[in-house]
Amino acid sequence: MKNVKNLFRHWEFFLVVFLILEFVVFGAANPKFLRPASIMTSLVNYISVCIIALFVTLVMITGGIDIQAASIIGLTSIVEGYLWSDLGVNIWVAVASALVVAVLCGALSGFFIAYCGVQPMVVTLGGSFLYSGLALLVSGLSATPAYQGISGFPSKDAVGAFHGFRFLGKGVILGVPTQIIVYLVLIALCAWLLHRSKYGEKLYLIGVNAQAAEYSGINTRAVIMSTYVLSAFSAAIAGTLLTANVDSAKYNLGAGYTLAIITAVVLGGTLNTGGKGSILGTVLASLIICILRYGLPLCFGVSTQNLDLPIGVILVLVVLGREIAGQRMISALFKRVKRK
User: Fold this and answer.
1) Given this model, what pLDDT does residue 254 score?
2) Model confidence over 238-265: pLDDT tens digits?
3) Distance CA 1, CA 4 (A)
4) Which ranges of the chain does DSSP label H, i.e. alpha helix?
5) Using an 8 Å Cβ cutoff, are 256 and 70 in contact?
6) What is the pTM of this model?
7) Which of 81, 121, 122 is nearest to 101 (CA)?
8) How many Å apart are CA 181 and CA 176, to the nearest integer?
9) Which of 190, 182, 329 is nearest to 270 (CA)?
């Protein structure tokens, strides 16, 4: 009985129930929804959000926020395309260069937040405009029109199988898409960092009380800055996979992902004030949003242009529910104090 009660105390349990309900409702509405190949394709199409949400979880556990990751996707994509197509750089060198650019972007924003004390919302909002502008600038240097996008990346071999750069986005290993394998590896990495390493302990301590963490010997500024670097690096990975998948390098690739990323992290149980969160929760929440975006158009005819509406509603309800729950806890605490 105790185990059952403990289970109900975990937010991840309710996320699993919600995910199961999605499959039941959508599956009953349209049997085509349950096709494994279609579900796998929907996950691949949404993998960028899933990947970035993992690392934004680390940022938000420290009490910060990152809304610039979507713009780094586009910057990474166009840098890879420009270096390969216009300058003739080897595609893997171009990919490595784009990753370095993304890390520098994350380090710049992280520096202003951690060492200059500027609000994370302000810095990352400014970063989203700055890095989108840089992406547009690089796109303007290319001989290919910005609206068209740079395409024609190394694709298939003699037998028609994807190889090289395109294998990252279109390849299959033992029946599993390459992008999903990359995602699983990143889940394992983030889970270890957050739940099994001293680095994760530092993140939680900073989120609970940054000043106390500093007094305990933790270099809070370096740790906070590192979370933005990791988040930018994940955005670069997502941008590379997305570019390899659609065979198009564009400056605005990934535009519109910000709401979904933040929703996945918050819905997963990470507090926007910091100090609490889990990788499992973020993964489950990402899957819930992914299935929602896949099931609503297929089963209920919802336009893809209107899919941000239910995601926004979920975000508002979760934040509102937490605020109400928090107020009740505070009221209950005051009542107990008065009784004593």
Assistant:
1) 85
2) 999 999 999 999 999 988 899 889 989 9
3) 5
4) 2-9, 11-29, 36-45, 47-61, 69-85, 91-114, 120-141, 165-170, 178-195, 198-208, 210-215, 220-246, 258-267, 279-300, 308-339
5) yes
6) 0.90
7) 81
8) 7
9) 190
